[in-house]
Amino acid sequence: MHLGELLCQIAKLGVTLQCGKNEDRLHYTPAGALPPNLVAELKEHKPEVIQILREDEEYRLTGIIQCERQVFDLARDYFREDGRV
């Protein structure tokens, strides 16, 4: 699954993603809200998700991804800068 699709599915479930500022740990709430297949995908893309979260200004201010719009913006910006489709 592509990272953008994963982030969209997570947002549609109403799940909030967070990561530590210095540690490479990824957290989501509410606990248990993600099905096992999405947890596995999240683990597979963990470094990329953490990088996206740390580079996003709104995330740095709030510490969480708050809405689907933010997920779409993050995914669009990430793929545009990286040259991926």
- N-to-C SSE series? HEEHHHH
Query: Between the first and last Cα atoms, what is the distance in angstroms?
Result: 13 Å
Structural class: mainly alpha
Number of E strands:
2
The strands making up the biggest β-sheet line up spatially as 1-2
What percent of residues are in strands?
5-15%
Give Rg in angstroms: 12 Å
Shape: globular
What count of helical segments does DSSP give?
5
Spans of at least 5 consecutive residues with low confidence: none
The largest sheet, given as strand count, sense and whether it forms a barrel, is: 2 strands, antiparallel
Helical content, roughly?
Answer: 55-70%
Average pLDDT, all residues: 77
Explain what the structure shows.
The protein has 85 residues and is mainly α. Helices cover 59% and strands 9% of the residues. It has helices at residues 3-12, 36-44, 46-55, 57-62, 68-82; strands at 16-19, 26-29. A two-stranded antiparallel ribbon has the order 1-2. A hairpin with a 6-residue loop joins strand 1 and strand 2 (26-29). The longest helix is centred in the last third of the chain and has 15 residues, at 68-82. The chain starts with a helix and ends with a helix. The model has no long low-confidence stretch (mean pLDDT 77).
Task: Please describe the structure with a list of short key phrases separated by commas or semicolons.
globular; mainly alpha; 85 residues; two-stranded antiparallel ribbon
Summarize it.
It is built from 5 helices and 2 strands. The protein is mainly alpha-helical and 85 residues long. Helix 1 runs antiparallel to helix 5 (68-82).
